[in-house]
Amino acid sequence: xxxxxxxxxxxxxxxxxxxxxxxxxxxxxxxxxxxxxxxxxxxxxxxxxxxxxxxxxxxxxxxxxxxxxxxxxxxxxxxxxxxxxxxxxxxxxxxxxxxxxxxxxxxxxxxxxxxxxxxxxxxxxxxxxxxxxxxxxxxxxxxxxxxxxxxxxxxxxxxxxxxxxxxxxxxxxxxxxxxxxxxxxxxxx
Length: 189
Known about the structure:
Elements: E1 10-20, E2 24-33, E3 38-45, H1 50-64, E4 69-72, H2 81-90, E5 93-96, H3 106-120, H4 128-144, H5 156-166, H6 171-174
Parallel strand pairs: 1-4, 4-5
Antiparallel strand pairs: 1-2, 2-3
Helix pairs in contact: 1-2
């Protein structure tokens, strides 16, 4: 992680697809803060428009502050008039990766891999409400319980807190983890 990266400097966004019920489509938008690797939004629905993404971004600005830059692919939701208007009105630089180059948005692609491997490949959803509930539980675990090796093993929430207290996300600022090691046994959705 670059030493100059601070919370809200750069966010990343992407969509992930899955199914629920009798093969109904589930679309999930993930919005992360690249500095602390914190997932700020994990919203699931049958369809998510650019207008809906813009509303979520407004909510995230109220909760976490305004990002300087957002990185995404060129999907229709992210290139929609609603997103272009939102970025312009909020003076947020929007960087679109080159088509077919997901490595240019490596932070969110890494998150998507964790989401897929640790959650979506493990769970079946009975309904949209069930999927949303399970997404919220997994998001809490990802941000507040599960250590991240990219942060030298604290949680994203702890990394954000350390940065806000010390102005740094270095291992010295984070201190020792509160639990000796991460245990997945006994966790249930």
